[in-house]
Amino acid sequence: MNPTYQYDVHLPVNLEEGKKYPVIITLHGKGSNERNMFGLVAPLAADFIIIGVRGNLQLGSGYQYYDLKSLGNPIREMFDQAVTDLEAFIQYATEKYPIDPDKRYLLGFSQGAILSMTLALTMGEQLKGIVALNGYIPDFVKTEYSLRSIKDVSVFASHGEYDSVFPVRIGHETASYLEGQTERLTFKLYPTDHGVSEENQLDFLNWIKQDAKFNTNKG
After folding, report:
1. In this predicted structure, what is the pLDDT of residue 219?
2. Which helix (H) or strand (E) holds 141?
3. Of 18, 106, 115, 133, which residue is least crowded by CB atoms under 10 Å?
């Protein structure tokens, strides 16, 4: 199949023949691109396959995965299509590259975080974990989508205390919802606006390393 999305892939330098690797698939924010996300996870590039997915809709000098009616209000048809296409992309990438299907992680910022959390809820245990930075879960996803259990999906969610795009109240509401879905939730606030601080980055990098190690031992 030809994927809907353009993407960057970074394979571990010392790739071993026949070995399957954990993967981190990154989803960028509105108006950004896949290359802006790589720096967040570059320290893991020796042990993980890293794939940056570019939104398929041009927005200024950047891209997006879907458009909005208003802030926090996705155009439903476009959002639904993005979720379907991203699920298909994850399967495509797993078949094309030496990816361990039991160790698939999504990492998204803003619009990418919204999609990462939605995909966790629609794919369930097909994903090992997600990192959702400064996002939320649309109400229609919670009430109208066909959702799977995420009780065994690891989730790291964070939010800026001074987020001027999605107020911190939204972060707390998101965490409260996720707490009801999985015991494997880490939720943190950082004294930032709508962005990712160095402390935030170090925390989720350590979280991914620990979670992948835990799952390796379990497996």
Report:
1. 40
2. helix 139-144
3. 18
Asked if the structure places residue 202 within a domain, the reply is yes
Query: Is residue 200 domain-resident?
Result: yes
Q: What is the pLDDT at residue 168?
A: 97
Residue 77, Cα to own-chain centre: how many angstroms? 20
Q: Which residue from 139, 3, 168 is spatially nearest to 79, judged by alpha carbons?
A: 139
76 located within any domain: yes
User: Per residue, what are the HEC states of 188-218?
Assistant: EEECCCCCCCHHHHHHHHHHHHHHHHHHHHH
Which range of residues forms the domain containing residue 33? 7-218
Tens-digit pLDDT profile for residues 53-91 = 999 999 999 999 999 998 888 999 999 999 999 999 999
Contact 167, 144 (CB under 8 A): no
Q: Which pTM value belongs to this model? A: 0.95
| Of 91, 180, 166, 101, nearest in space to 132 by CA | 166
Q: How far apart are CA 115 and CA 82, in angstroms?
A: 8
pLDDT at 214: 58
**56 touches 135 (CB < 8 A):** no
